[in-house]
Specification:
mainly alpha, about 70% helix, elongated
Length: about 260
């Protein structure tokens, strides 16, 4: 058997049967397309796609922040050493200053990564600590350049701290918006799922639940509102427990209920 015969035999099963009419082939293609479309527009698939984008954004932002802080480490050490002899005790201790500030900043950003995922707002002290660490990094990184009066050095040593500052502020908002986008996409996909095409069958079909009985956002919110008491902490987990809603919808319900009961 030559290679051409082998390829023809392998490809033969993929050809449509000759006895199918054009209408039957179209019906088969429509059924396959509807099945693929049903999976592509499934709420869980939509939410998973947004989750993947959020992971990519997190990785890129964390990489940029880590590289920016690594760039500033040498400048901060030079500032803290203040001309001490290399490998002397003051020179070695000066290397601890930048990690001290950077680790606090990274801890705050890591905590905000979790709180923003569930759209929980942090207090003023958290933002104050973040700005303080960023400002301290900027001042220590550019002080020598300002003292020398070198504009080019000021610009060079200002870019990494400012980028870190902007990224630290932007990444929190991005996570918040991506969480909201995942919830909205999950809700819209749940409400707009296409109907699948089925072949006619003689077997009795189960009765479909009317769309009028499908729970809406307001229905879930009313159920959560009725279950809430002043001693309950509103969270997405509690919302799912009392309403049975999806994981993607629970953050939006928690935010809406929290705004209503907030004094």
């Amino acid at each position: 058997m030559n290679q051409t015969d082998h390829q023809n035999r392998v490809a033969a099963p993929r050809r449509p049967p000759a006895d199918l009419t054009r209408a039957q082939r179209l019906a088969r293609d429509a059924a396959e397309a509807a099945e693929v479309r049903a999976y592509q527009t499934h709420p869980d698939v939509i939410a998973l796609q947004v989750e993947r984008v959020r992971k990519q954004v997190d990785r890129l932002c964390w990489t940029g922040i880590a590289l920016g802080l690594a760039f500033t480490m040498a400048n901060v050490q030079h500032f803290a050493a203040a001309g001490s002899a290399p490998w002397s005790t003051p020179w070695l201790i000066a290397w601890l200053l930048d990690p001290t500030v950077s680790l606090v900043l990274l801890a705050i950003l890591r905590a905000e990564q979790v709180t923003s995922r569930y759209q929980v707002r942090t207090g003023r002290w958290v933002r104050c600590a973040k700005w303080l660490t960023l400002a301290a990094t900027y001042v220590m990184n550019t002080w020598s350049s300002y003292a020398a009066g070198s504009v080019s050095a000021v610009v060079l040593h200002s870019v990494p701290p400012l980028v870190v500052f902007a990224a630290a502020e932007a990444v929190t908002d991005l996570r918040d918006k991506l969480t909201e986008a995942a919830s909205v996409a999950f809700t819209e996909a749940s409400e707009r799922r296409p109907r699948t095409v089925h072949k006619p069958s003689s077997a009795p079909r189960p009765k479909r639940t009317s769309s009028k009985h499908r729970k809406s956002f307001d229905d879930y919110l009313e159920q959560a509102r009725a279950a809430w008491t002043p001693d309950v902490t509103i969270s997405p987990a509690w919302i799912r427990e009392v309403t049975g809603c999806s994981r993607g919808l629970s953050p939006r319900l928690a935010n809406a209920l929290a705004r209503e009961v907030r004094p």
